[in-house]
Amino acid sequence: MLTVEPTAISEVKVVTPKRFGDNRGFFVETYHKQRFVEAGIDMEFVQDNHSLSALAGTVRGLHFQSDPFAQAKLIRVVRGRVLDVAVDLRRSSPTFGRHVAVELSAENGRQLLVPVGFAHGFCTLEPDTEIVYKVSAYFSAAHDHGLRWNDPSLGIDWPVAPADAILSDKDRKQPMLAELPIYFA
Ligand SMILES: Cc1cn([C@H]2C[C@H](O)[C@@H](COP(=O)(O)OP(=O)(O)O[C@H]3O[C@@H](C)C(=O)[C@@H](O)[C@H]3O)O2)c(=O)[nH]c1=O
To answer: Which processes are annotated in GO (biological process) (predicted)?
Structure first.
């Protein structure tokens, strides 16, 4: 009923629940706790978020929350397309500073599981793109942090040039990886 594929960073997974198509369209169980647990995805999600980005080339991120509000995220697209990115911030990880980038779309129905210890962000590839995601800890402004989306040391091949990206004021000024304190051992 769902497939789970590891990515280049094995803890980051692509989850694709089965769609049942018929003459009306499709039906899909986008989250089923028992099936996710059986597939090794065992976290409690406590908040659902939904964002709309009006223009293609909108970049949100890279964001993460620190303990005790660190969040795992399960992200999917319900309209449009994004390049979704997770950056490993776990200092003792062999993949610290490395990232995974996956295209998620309303059409492909893929979900990205981003564990605790990663920064997350995305770039919209179409106008009016909406993403919906579950998080495993409540939002806390005091624990909300960012990393500069186009820090050259991350080597992310974003599908938009820096001069054309649509960003929040906050995300324009996020720190570089080298400036971040250790949030995740
Ligand atoms: C994320 C979040 C924001 N807010 C508020 C704060 C602010 O006034 C407004 C917009 O917040 P932001 O600019 O941080 O929204 P946005 O840039 O969409 O933030 C999101 O980006 C992606 C990449 C993520 O991974 C998410 O976890 C989250 O950080 O919404 C909440 O009330 N609850 C929440 O959970």
So the answer is: dTDP-rhamnose biosynthetic process; polysaccharide biosynthetic process
